[in-house]
What does this fold into?
Amino acid sequence: MNDTPPNETAPGLAEAIPAAAPAPPPPSPPPSRPAPDGERFFTASAFLLAVLALLLLGWLWYDSRSVTEGLRQELAKKISDADSLNKASKVIADQAREASADAQVKLGVLEAKVAESQSQQIALEALYQELSRNRDEAALAEIEQSLLLASQQLQLAGNVKAALIALQSADSRLQRMERPQLTPVRKALNRDIERLKAMPFVDTVGIAVRLDNVIASIDKLPLAMEVRPPETAAGDAPTAAPVNTWQRFAREAWNELKQLVRVQNMDRPEVPLLAPSQTFYLRENLKLRLLGARLALLSRDQTSFKADLNAARDWVSKYYDTREKAVGNTLSTLRNLHESDINIEMPDISSTLDSVRNLRLARERPTR
It folds into this structure.
């Protein structure tokens, strides 16, 4: 900075600059005159308006500032609230993202389990179908065996009751299966059942039991040749005791002599006499005849059955004592058995058996 005082000039400059001419005197101001009243009023009004305008501007500035400050505070509050909400929403979003990830994992696990359960269900359905098919095939095989047994009972033994039980059992098995394709088989079974129910009943078992009882009683029946005449009563007792021993001896001897010979009226012209061995063979042959009748009964050979019973009845009437009650009961039993009709035409259930076989073969064929 320059330390030279302002009134002092530099030596060189003082010499170079000439001295200035003196300034002219300032002009004199015009003479003042008093302002009029209108101008003073206008000036006061303008001043007042300016003050009012300034006050209004100040008030507006203050009001706008207070409003702006309130808006700023409210905006700051809302911004802080928005920040807190934004943070909370971020937390919630993070939690939702984590929950969504967990849900995705669980959904994947559930989808895997559902797929596994579906595969297991398919396997179970296949297994159920296989078991159902095997169960139906086993049931059809058992029904076929029942029908075969019923056919054998009818054709070989003529046992209508056993055949009827077998057919009813097969029909109940078919009813529990509830298959529409089994309807023709059930119709055939019901037709055979009605035919068996309409047949006359032959008590084969009862006839066989009665024959067995007759066979068991053969050894106990008395033969005609073994019958002895009843002993005659002794003579009238003496009115008085014998006088001496000789008289008593003579009377006893006479009674013994009278019993040596007996006279008896015979109902039959002759009584066959048999040796002990012949007696044994007679009983055994009679048993064989009755056994032959029993076999003829089981085979429904009515001719042989009646022939054996006739022969047995003739032998009993000829060789056994008909006056005995046991012999009479045996003859009555043989007579009743001879009158029994055992030759009944048995129905043929082979058509029903063939239908069951064909149905079982048709079910087995696709699986092979």
Summary: Residues 116-200+349-364 form one domain. Residues 1-21, 234-239 have pLDDT under 50 and may be disordered.
